[in-house]
Amino acid sequence: MHKVLSEYLFSDMIIRYLTNEEGNIGFEILPASLKDKAAASKKYNIDPLVQVFIRGDDFSGGFANGHTMRNGQQTFLLRYESQKVEKIENTQVITTILKSEQGYVARHVLTYHNGLKAFELKTVLANKSDKAICLEMLSSFSVGGLTPFIEGEAPESMNIHRIRSCWSNEGRLITESVEDLQLEPSWSGHGVRTEKFGQIGSMPVRKFFPFLAVEDTVTHVVWAAQLACASSWQMEMYRRDDALCISGGLADFDFGHWMKVLEPGTEFETPSAFITVGIGNVDEVSQRLLTIHKYNVNKINKFDRLPVLFNEFCTTWGNPSHDNIKKIVDIIKEKEVDYFVIDSGWFADKENGWDGTHGDWIVSPEVFPHGLQETVRIIREAGMIPGIWFEFENCGYLSKAYKDHKHLLTRNGDVITSGLRKFWDMTDPWVIDYLSDKVISMLKQYGFKYLKVDYNETIGIGCDGYESLGEGLRQKILASQEFFRRIREEIPDIIIENCSSGGHRLEPSMMSLCEMASFSDAHECDEIPVVAANLHRVINPCQSQIWAVLRKKDSKKRVVYSIANTFLGVMCLSGDIYDLDKEQWNTVEEGISFYRAVSDIILNGTTYFFGSKLKSYRNPKGWMGILRKSEDEKEVLALIYTFHGNFPDTVEIPIGDNYEICNTYCAFENNVLLINGSLCINMKEEFEAVAVHLKLSK
């Protein structure tokens, strides 16, 4: 039997702490408007507030060992000690203390910033015993009681949402029922039901985003969680009775070979988790988590309006030079481009080229015979802010740095080689001094105010030097992030782009360090709008930089399609810029003007998804509609894309009454009407895009 220990209202969410006779504490959340309906008759045990496993603990029964480290012995030995609430300006912090007789103290910390639609959780475990312990698992969050709105086992009424990801195909939403994942309890309650997933290595969005949502399809409530962790992480669904439980944090010993020794008097803090609950579907509720993202990035954001960038990579394909940059600048200097980014290749070796020589970071005298300063001067005089590309956390196989094994990461005594890259030890003071000279001093010397940081391989399960391979990985990634902070400390007005073979590091802790990110390496393929729209569930579009690669052969339809893709985020131009004709440039400039007009909607809006259920991304069929409403709902951006196969001649999207069409961007003068609160758009061909800007009638 359990009862309510305490209850708090944050925004439209009820936070509820439960307790039982043994002194264990549980954690449940629900929409405030449905509080009175959360009284379903259910038989379930409290899911402990903190999940912890210390080496030597008994594992849970029910065939759990090897599948999960949840609900081990120490988890239930942590008992309630106290709870306090602190209010600091616009922030409230709830700290719940749990203690065990063995001398372990857990602090469960909830932080809520007024006005947001989500809150942050983390756990701190202190060893106050007289012996060292080996910590093998500690949760950042653990939420139980799902779903409190349906009696019993809630059959056929709960879905699990996860977001898969792979190179150039980021953000695919996968929805499965509890039954399909075999998360129904057994007839007797025996036998643990669990599903663990995550990512191992230094590319945190490889295979999955650190995101999980549970949907009550009857009550239309969604619980969603996101981890802010750039190293190995895991999330779990667990069940043994009427209630489903979810948890997550660092990848544990079983999953990520992580173990941390806590000496007497020391403590360990987990990465943060962002949690929310809301009424609606997963598309709507996932964006509540992004209110924390926006809060964090606003601390470093310098944009009053979204910029237009030009990145020369898809123009020169790794072969920038003074001459071709000057040629590009002469073309785009009157096109309202804000940033000009010199991508990889500026360090090209005359014998080995650029691909594989990164790590030594010497400006190529062959590529820039007048010196890089002269090229930067040309960019500045054209009214653009110069930017440059680095991949400073590793080194390529043709660089001298690649052979400097003393300062590179090892595993089991051997230098880690992933593909054609080795990795700097970012905790090594020599490495930090080296990179400070090669990166920070270089940025200062040439006056670069934009830095694109790439990262094109993964360390894998971990490295030597610590208690476990997983702890080695965690330490190195935290050191990398510290170097990002050092760059910003020394160059406060720098803009940093988070790139990792496109979107492999699009997780909250990295996104809080960077104003924007490369959304994907999908440079000029048909699925760009699908991938870009997917990311609205996990990062804010005002941080999602999207390629518009323009080619000499492009029809007007193709140019509009490419430019309209960038309305799903931040515009980044590239391609055959100096081969475009006047008509093509007119279409591009019209698109830039449209983008400027809807910039605030992209910055501060909410996204709604419409269209066909797409299976293939490489060969999409049907259509997609994206509606983004401004924060005050006075403006709307509607984006419609057609793909292969069947799509309606006229697409209809409900938008609400009292709007009027302000502007359109399309290739064929499409018929666009407002009829009975719906936006009706006549679509003519495959792979066509239409953008519509609407405002409330005065």
Automatic annotation (TrEMBL):
Spell out the Gene3D superfamilies in the cross-references.
Aldolase class I, alpha-galactosidase from lactobacil brevis
User: Per the UniProt entry, what are the Gene Ontology biological process annotations, in alphabetical order?
Assistant: carbohydrate catabolic process
Q: What is its EC number?
A: 3.2.1.22
GO terms (molecular function) for this protein are: alpha-galactosidase activity
Keywords in UniProt for this one? Answer: Glycosidase, Hydrolase
Q: Give the domain of life.
A: Bacteria
Q: Mind telling me which InterPro entries this protein's record contains?
A: Aldolase_TIM (IPR013785), Alpga-gal_N_sf (IPR038417), Alpha-glycosidase_related (IPR050985), GH (IPR017853), Glyco_hydro_36 (IPR002252)
User: What is the uppermost EC class here?
Assistant: hydrolase
- Which Pfam families does this one have? Melibiase (PF02065)
Cited PANTHER family = ALPHA-GALACTOSIDASE C-RELATED (PTHR43053:SF3), GLYCOSIDASE FAMILY 31 (PTHR43053)
Q: What is this protein called?
A: Alpha-galactosidase
